[in-house]
Design goal:
By secondary structure, this protein is of the alpha+beta class. It has a domain of about 90 residues: 3-Layer(aba) Sandwich (Endonuclease, Chain A), CATH 3.40.960. Helix content is about 40%, strand content about 20%. It has 5 helices and 4 strands. It has a 4-stranded mixed beta sheet with strand order 1-2-3-4, with helices on both faces. The longest helix has 14 residues. The chain starts with 19 loop residues before the first helix and ends in a 5-residue tail after the last helix.
Length: about 130
Amino acid sequence: MLKIQCEVSATVPDRYRTTSETLSRAKRLRRDMTEAEKKLWYRIRLGQLDGHQFRKQVPVDPYILDFACLRKRLALEIDGSQHAEISKAEDERNRFLRQEGYSVVRYWNSEVMQNIDGVLLDLLGKLNSLPDRF
């Protein structure tokens, strides 16, 4: 039997590592998605949106993105009423994600639930306007 040994390089910057706490939280959020997140996920998973691949509950330590298209570096957030006003923390989060190379797109839960086709058309336009990052 062949044994493969794998080591984490000490040269990997901390900002590219994800803490076990963040990973655990992401797993829990994947399991406990909101109705709006489930509805959107059903329509974007498996490359259904013009071939664009999405992942759900993606850790970008210390944050967790609702959805991400890694090829386009697009963070897709679905916001409930608790985000009615952009708080200082939310602004800081957006700034951090932009520094990490992500474009951030937000939709309200109500938009997803009542106008999923409009959300998908808008999202597709935004995706197609971004260059591939790899």
